[in-house]
Amino acid sequence: MTPLNIKHEIVHAKKSDTNPAFYQATHKEIVEHFPGYNLIYTDGSLSGSKAAYAAVLVDEAFTLRLPDKSFIFTAEMYDLLIAFQQIEKRSKKHFIIFSDSKSALRALQSKYWTNPLILQLIEQHHFLSTVV
């Protein structure tokens, strides 16, 4: 199975202690290193007992509110899943997904996939890596 290529340049920094200029500069470096790649931004959010996720591509955004009392981890995994699904639907071949979820990225790199959503993401990535 093709391993996920996850870069941790941005997620190592603690948000509260990091100047936003660092994030902007690191983002710019990544984008410049991969010219012509299509960018996808994902985010999950939790407010009280309400969770939602979003995936934003250049030409459209996908958002969905999850059932009450959903976990932020679930929202972060779903935003990655919708990103993978959108990649599959497009004729373009090269994508970078920007995610700020350390837990979701670590789970995808783990070898202990017991969560069905993680398994679905790993399978989707494997499929994409063989056809895209």
Describe this structure in words.
It is a single chain. The model has no long low-confidence stretch (mean pLDDT 86). The chain is globular. It has helices at 20-33, 72-89, 102-109, 116-131; strands spanning 38-47, 50-56, 61-65, 95-98. The chain has one domain: Ribonuclease H-like superfamily/Ribonuclease H (Nucleotidyltransferase, domain 5). The protein has 132 residues and is an alpha+beta fold. Helix 2 (72-89) runs parallel beside helix 4 (116-131). It has a four-stranded mixed sheet with strand order 3-2-1-4, with helices on one face. A hairpin with a 2-residue loop joins strand 1 and strand 2 (50-56). The two termini are 14 Å apart.
CATH topology (level 3) name: Nucleotidyltransferase, domain 5
Helix-and-strand structural type: alpha+beta
The CATH homologous superfamily name equals: Ribonuclease H-like superfamily/Ribonuclease H
What global shape is seen? globular
Query: Number of helix segments?
Result: 4
How many DSSP E strands?
A: 4
Distance between the termini: 14 Å
The stretches of 5 or more residues where confidence is low (pLDDT under 50) are none
The largest sheet, given as strand count, sense and whether it forms a barrel, is: 4 strands, mixed
Report the C-alpha radius of gyration, rounded: 15 Å
Name the average pLDDT.
86
Percentage of residues in DSSP E strands: 15-25%
Helical residue percent? 40-55%
